[in-house]
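Service request form, structural biology core

Requester: graduate student, group of Dr. S.
Request type: structure prediction, single chain
Budget code: on file
Notes: please return the result as structure tokens.

Sequence provided:
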Amino acid sequence: MIAVIQRVSEASVKIEDKIKGSIQKGFLILLGITHEDTLEDVEWLSKKIVGMRIFSDEEGKMNLDLKSVNGDILLISQFTLHASTKKGNRPSFIEAARPEIAIPLYEQMIKQLSKDLGKDIQTGEFGADMKVSLVNDGPVTIIIDSKNKN
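Core staff response, request fulfilled:
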């Protein structure tokens, strides 16, 4: 499971010109799920995300987590994070999980992030054509792969 975490001052997602989710200060998370991912990956990644200390404290050091700044989360599923570009110029998505595996894990990630953060999160819609807008604060972008947890 790959998460691209962007610290934002605002972010939103539109589907068919209607806002599906929006946040102010917090994290826009692009989530890629592979066929090897499990509930263990969901739990580990959620705790890692919510505990990520990348907001500035009073001294300007990245030392505060989402809860400390009352931040929010906008979670977007993005299978293209598992693109393989080894051969040719057309990416292969063979490592991306099929919907029957990815959808339950995506839904579990929504529940787990909400539980770990202590409040509801905003989301896109799995498989939809989405238009994502954001103001990356910093910019700060962190990539976490649950397969690299050891």
